[in-house]
């Protein structure tokens, strides 16, 4: 690999790290929501997937049995987490290092640097 290629990769890595840090440091107001039970339960998570809030409608508290309500809570949280994960995946897909997306590199690190894969030694 020539010095220009290495310099370009270094710049790409620095830019990717800065973008990832900006993403993680987004304001606490950056939230993702998921709903279940036709909107009876709404869960909110932050950028890192941390659970911030679960809202249950008054009607759901009165009309839905406890097991179903628990399932709605679980499903709403999972839906909100999926929204946060989708945002993270979109960010990683938009960042490139050496002409490859960071998501691709994370999925297959050896592909990032062709010719650097070494066979594992057998024991």
Q: Could you explain the architecture of this structure?
A:
By secondary structure, this protein is an alpha+beta fold. The protein has a single domain, classed as Ybab, Chain: A (2-Layer Sandwich). The protein is 51% helix and 18% strand. The protein contains 4 helices and 5 strands, in the order αβββααββα. It has helices at residues 3-24, 58-63, 66-94, 102-107; strands at 31-36, 41-46, 51-56, 96-97, 100-101. A 3-stranded antiparallel sheet has the order 1-2-3. It has a two-stranded antiparallel sheet with strand order 4-5. A hairpin with a 2-residue loop joins β4 and β5. It is elongated and about 70 Å long.
Topology overview:
Layout (H helix, E strand, L loop, with lengths): L2 H22 L6 E6 L4 E6 L4 E6 L1 H6 L2 H29 L1 E2 L2 E2 H6 L16
Antiparallel strand pairs: 1-2, 2-3, 4-5
Key terms:
123 residues, 4 helices, two-stranded antiparallel sheet, Ybab, Chain: A, elongated, alpha+beta
């Amino acid at each position: 690999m020539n010095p220009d290629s290495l310099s370009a990769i270094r710049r790409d890595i620095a830019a990717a790290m800065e973008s990832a840090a900006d993403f993680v440091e987004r304001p606490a107001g950056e939230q993702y929501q998921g709903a279940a039970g036709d909107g009876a339960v709404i869960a909110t998570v932050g950028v890192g997937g941390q659970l911030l809030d679960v809202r249950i409608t008054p009607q759901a508290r009165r009309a839905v049995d406890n097991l179903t309500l628990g399932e709605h809570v679980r499903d709403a949280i999972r839906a909100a987490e999926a929204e946060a994960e989708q945002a993270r995946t979109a960010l990683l897909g938009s960042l490139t290092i050496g002409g490859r997306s960071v998501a691709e590199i994370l999925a297959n690190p050896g592909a990032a640097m062709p010719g650097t894969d070494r066979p594992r030694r057998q024991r």
